[in-house]
Amino acid sequence: MAREFNGTSTDFITQGGAASTVLTASTASVSIWAKMAGSARSVAAVYSGDILWGDVSFFLGLFRADVGGSDRIWAYNWDGNEDRVGATYTTGVWTHFGWMHSGGNLSIYKDGELVSSVASGDTTNIGSAIHIGGKNAVENTWFEGALAEYAIWDVALTTAEWAMLGKAYSPLFVRPGSLTRYSPFVGRANPEPEYIQGQGGTATGTTTIRHPRVIYPTRRRAVHAEAMAGGIVVPRAMAQYRQRRSA
Fold it and tell me: The domain 2-246: what is its CATH number?
């Protein structure tokens, strides 16, 4: 199962730890599956839109918003100015999105493929906590739809790695040594387990919905997936995941 959010202040997930514990001001990659419902709000700035994930102080994240007639999922970063780059989406369809900040650029990926990039400097502040599906009542940034397979790396992923995620391979297959946060959002526990740092996500409200199809590590798949990912150490990630899952 995945977590479903109703687009109001009753539904969101809060994770412990500041953004600085999982990414740097200059470099990070974030992966998430989303299934949008309802309609996007028309706003002047992306950070006033509906949040898929982001920090509570409006400095970075992935948002759904209609800005100037462009209804998109937006990768957003504040480096003293609002930097944004968007990707189209289809309501009611599970879609993989990637947010990447690296080398002075902000990029958005959709189903494993680069959509576009824009110049963006270091994030001004990464000291705030991360919310998923909602941020705060000041901007009314509540997401309507479902979210699953949320993951953060403190490095820039490669084209091949994004493609792998877009083909529904679990984040555990991709650069596990640099994976700093992973929550599949299966909806079986609250707080939602987080398998890298143990920063479980406290779910307020939300319901469960059928999870998107995802390929998880098994011993039989490990060798094939490791080759696809260019030699990542999948068995170590599997052991860590299973150990924390059974705890």
Answer: 2.60.120.200
